[in-house]
Input
Amino acid sequence: MQRIAIDMDEVIADFLTKYVASYNEEFQATITKEQLMGLHLSEIVAEAHRSRLQEFMRDETFFSDLAVMPGSQEVIRKLMDRYEVFITTAAMEVPASFGAKYEWLGKHFPFIPHTHIVFCGDKSILNADFLIDDNARHFKHFRGEGILFTAPHNVHITGYRRVKNWEEVRQMFLAPGV
Amino acid sequence: MQRIAIDMDEVIADFLTKYVASYNEEFQATITKEQLMGLHLSEIVAEAHRSRLQEFMRDETFFSDLAVMPGSQEVIRKLMDRYEVFITTAAMEVPASFGAKYEWLGKHFPFIPHTHIVFCGDKSILNADFLIDDNARHFKHFRGEGILFTAPHNVHITGYRRVKNWEEVRQMFLAPGV
Output
């Protein structure tokens, strides 16, 4: 059975909406996702605000109420009939997120066994056939094929097969009509 | 560069000493490690006490003050000159341990970057050449070679190369005299 590793933030969890809203609220700003094409939020805010962005993520509760990316639950459930699925998140960058991320998965993806959750840093440690991720940097030393999940920051990146939503994941990995 | 994945409990962290001491203290018992040859503690205690063993590990602080296995720091530091080293622990079994395990590594193995720490469940997800672990169950679907680190519970297990301490890890992976 082939194995698919799936990232959390910007792939199954809508990190960016809350991240931008938190910034806008605190600094009375009006940044939109459209302004973030090809950029990270930290690249367009005032330099003095950048450390505050780090702090948002270090808040233990930040990750607890992220919205689920549309279609991800249904498609992953179906993928699990034909593939071995692991959820693989670079949580080591934000240790404060461990508990909230684990609970979020239990709440929204209770059908994924805890044995198939991985908190890591360098994703080259993953032994999988595919890695669906919004960060192409993880693909460089990954042993399988990286599938780039479209997010504003990665729209200009080329060199990988790309999916822009979960319907396209379904089309790529499951036969028509499944 | 070849890659070595290294387990935490019973390999770099002395889990068993505290586990047995905690049990003995609470139940005024006198169980020794010698009595645990080929067995897990849960197999020799009264059935009524087993759930308490689970509770020990669910205490967030249980893992915070485990002793470091003798020689592990020095040998891992030397391994890192010749191999890529990852610390890979089945922490998903005990989510309450996430924070304590991460802090313990930062305190005792500060030279291991956070990118090279993995909290997982099923270790077949690891892409490494070697896995040094006391639980042979992780070797079955592991893509590299499992090296069994001797612990009381695994003394009767055969079929794998075995090391009984960190001096033997040094001898297996590093040239004489290193």
Q: What stands out?
A: Helices of chain B lie at 15-27, 41-44, 50-58, 72-82, 98-108, 166-173. Strands of chain B lie at 3-6, 13-14, 67-68, 84-89, 117-119, 130-133, 145-149, 161-163. The radius of gyration of chain B is 16 Å. The interface with chain A takes residues 3, 5, 86, 88, 91-93, 95, 98-99, 102, 113-122, 124-128, 143 of chain B (CB under 8 Å).
